[in-house]
Write a structure and sequence with these properties.
Helix 2 packs antiparallel against helix 3 and helix 6 (187-193) crosses helix 7 (198-209). The protein contains 10 helices and 10 strands. The chain starts with a strand and ends in a 19-residue tail after the last helix. The chain is globular and about 60 Å long. It has a 6-stranded antiparallel beta sheet with strand order 1-2-9-4-7-10. The protein has a 4-stranded antiparallel beta sheet with strand order 3-8-5-6, with no helix packed on it. It is of the alpha+beta class and 278 residues long. The chain has 2 domains: 2-162, Jelly Rolls; 173-265, Homeodomain-like (Arc Repressor Mutant, subunit A), CATH 1.10.10.
């Protein structure tokens, strides 16, 4: 995967995937607005997934755990233009504006229908990627603010989201981990998103699950993979990435060590999960 960046802070960039398939787990500390120009992108969250193709526009709020899969489609590689709204830019933008009090910010991903404002906006960004030098700071600021203005015009709820600079509060660790175990993220990210230091996260985790985070995550992912293979009759190659493994050989090795047999041995749907080998 190659990303051509137009400034060192990477606020405006074009994302290109030359390979047939690319997957990563991401959680950004910035709000991200993007438009897909070719190829296909699938974003998977714990409770919902989104598939975007050419012409689709998406706003991803900050601090959202996602699996992102990018791939070619219709013979064309994946390509999108991405604009990132940094907290300091947003704070400066909203400093002189009176924002009406409203409902709490909706942090779900938002898709947008085609609109002339978006068409003009993203079309104006494309020529910047032909530059041999960095995009001037003044232009970056203008284009970031233009993007914010378009979102505010088309979505009345945008202000509640973009003007909220609070950090994640301490939440129920058990519920969060049961919901998000398949995301292959560093423990530091899990601790931050649950409102804890890494030391407090490890302590609370051991208290809740009676084991270490690493051991629990591996076993939980393997048990979920077994369910997908046996009950839903899926193939190992379709499952290993979704449950948080980076390659199929590691998945197969871990699966066999835990259950006592290879994942390819599962055939009948609905088979009960056997006790792990010890």
């Amino acid at each position: 995967m190659t990303d051509r960046k137009q400034n060192t802070l990477a606020e405006i960039l074009v994302s290109c995937v030359d390979e047939k398939y690319y997957k990563a787990e991401v959680v950004s500390d910035c709000h991200v607005l993007m438009k897909v120009f070719s190829g296909e992108m699938k974003i998977i969250q714990a409770d919902r997934s989104y598939t975007l193709v050419s012409g689709d526009i998406l706003l991803v709020p900050r601090n959202q755990l996602c699996s992102v899969i990018k791939k070619a489609k219709d013979g064309r590689p994946y390509q999108s233009v991405v604009v990132m709204f940094r907290p300091d830019r947003l704070a400066a933008y909203y400093a002189g504006k009176a924002i009406k009090a409203g409902s709490p910010a909706n942090t779900k991903l938002r898709t947008f229908d085609p609109h002339p404002l978006f068409e003009s906006y993203f079309a104006s960004l494309l020529p910047y990627f032909e530059l041999n030098e960095d995009l001037p700071e003044e232009i970056i600021l203008l284009k970031v603010e233009e993007g914010i203005s378009i979102l505010r015009t088309l979505d009345p709820d945008t202000d509640a989201l973009l003007s909220d600079f609070s950090e994640p509060g301490k939440i129920n660790l058990t519920a969060f981990m049961e919901k998000n175990f398949m995301f292959n993220m560093p423990l530091e990210k899990f601790s931050y998103l649950t409102g804890r230091s890494i030391a407090t996260f490890n302590r609370d985790f051991r208290k809740a699950f009676r084991t270490t985070p690493q051991k629990w995550l591996t076993e939980k992912r393997l048990q979920h993979a077994h369910y997908e293979l046996s009950v839903k009759n899926r193939k190992p190659g379709e499952v290993y990435l979704e449950v948080g493994f980076e390659n199929i050989s590691h998945f197969s090795f871990a699966f066999k060590r835990y259950f006592g047999y290879a994942p390819t041995k599962l055939q009948a749907a609905g088979a009960a999960v056997p006790k792990p080998a010890r």
